[in-house]
Amino acid sequence: MEYEASLPEKKSNTLSRDLIDYVRYMIQNHGENYKEMARDEKNYYQDTPKQIKRKINVYKNFYPEEYKEFMASLKPEKMDVQ
Questions:
Q1: What is the DSSP string of 10-61?
Q2: 12-68 tens-digit pLDDT
Q3: 37 Cβ partners below 8 Å, 6+ apart?
Q4: Angstrom distance (rounded) from CA 74 to CA 66
Q5: How far apart, in whole angstroms, are the C-alpha atoms of residue 12 and residue 5?
Q6: Residues in contact with 15: Cβ distance below 8 Å, sequence separation at least 6, in sequence order
């Protein structure tokens, strides 16, 4: 029992669905403009630009395939706007 207690805790490699939706919303609406993301009204967490950037990087690292698919889905939309 003492041995189990001395083991380091396993870190979870998942993000909450709310956080994933938040990050995707910010990327979709602001691209890589972190200052604009920080001023967005949906920034409920009142994150600074640096905190938002860190959350996006965590999303990229934990869900690389989902991130690639999401970014690929954004490219056609940006081409239509131009």
A1: PPP----HHHHHHHHHHHHHHTT-HHHHHHSTT-TT---HHHHHHHHHHHHH
A2: 677 899 999 999 999 999 999 999 999 999 999 899 999 999 999 999 999 999 999
A3: 26, 30, 43, 47, 49, 52
A4: 13
A5: 18
A6: 58, 59, 62, 63
